[in-house]
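Please decode residue identities from the backbone states below.
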């Protein structure tokens, strides 16, 4: 009998706690939206998704909530849900430039470059000054092998914003693919002047140096990339190849061992 009373007492306490918690939860769509934004700013994307989902349950017409939730799904590598949210945001607000760009990014990540280009093109139609849309469309054109269109878009992005580091990196990759290594190095260097902690630019410049036979420069760049991101195997492998090219088998073997350990 005592255990039954205790059980009932526990259930009553749990019910009171549940009521208390529910009373403390935001009740309006806008309150949930604000909390979702705050969670995004803190980098808590899982919590943001909960708040934004509550906001959309209360008000399914919030295009911004779909946009933000889509961005959160990208952070969680859930591209199919992200595409759904960006599509809904566009349906609700057809002039929402960022939704086209972000959906294009998802398509590009999935290798659907024709769909990506269509979205970036629409973003440019809506906002002809969109540096990001030109940059991203240029990268997709490059991935498709449409060299002239790719270079034109990347040049336009840098014309609109000479301090846009991603466009320098993408144009550097464009030159790299075509064996124009000095031009690639120059663009990666420009990106690094804008952001000395730009890990991808160090990696890419190191690769360009190595392809051009400048192995010491490549090793220096891969070492910088490792310092910035020590848990990525690729830079250890890149540096190992450069060491081997210089005949330093011992250091190459050390880096290869580190890369294998990180892959486990």
């Amino acid at each position: 009998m005592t255990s039954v009373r205790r059980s009932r007492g526990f259930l009553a306490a749990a019910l009171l706690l549940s009521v208390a918690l529910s009373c403390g939860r935001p009740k309006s769509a806008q309150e949930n939206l604000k909390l979702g934004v705050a969670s995004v700013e803190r980098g808590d994307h899982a919590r943001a998704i909960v708040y934004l989902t509550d906001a959309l349950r209360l008000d399914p017409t919030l295009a911004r909530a779909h946009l933000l939730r889509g961005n959160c799904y990208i952070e969680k590598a859930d591209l199919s849900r992200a595409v759904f949210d960006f599509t809904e945001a566009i349906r609700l607000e057809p002039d929402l430039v960022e939704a086209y760009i972000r959906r294009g990014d998802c398509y590009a990540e999935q290798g659907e470059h024709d769909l990506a280009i269509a979205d970036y093109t629409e973003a440019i139609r809506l906002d002809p000054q969109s540096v990001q849309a030109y940059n991203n469309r240029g990268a997709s054109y490059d991935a498709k092998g449409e060299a002239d269109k790719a270079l034109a878009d990347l040049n336009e992005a840098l014309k609109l914003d000479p301090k846009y580091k991603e466009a320098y990196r993408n144009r550097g990759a464009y030159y790299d693919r075509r064996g124009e290594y000095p031009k690639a190095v120059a663009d990666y260097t420009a990106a690094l002047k804008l952001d000395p902690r730009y890990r991808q630019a160090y990696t890419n410049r190191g690769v360009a140096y190595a392809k051009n036979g400048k192995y010491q420069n490549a090793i220096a760049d891969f070492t910088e990339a490792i310092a910035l991101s020590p848990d990525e195997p690729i830079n250890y492998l890149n540096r190992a190849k450069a060491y081997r090219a210089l005949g330093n088998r011992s250091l190459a073997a050390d880096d290869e061992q580190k890369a294998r350990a990180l892959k486990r």
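Observation: The radius of gyration is 25 Å.
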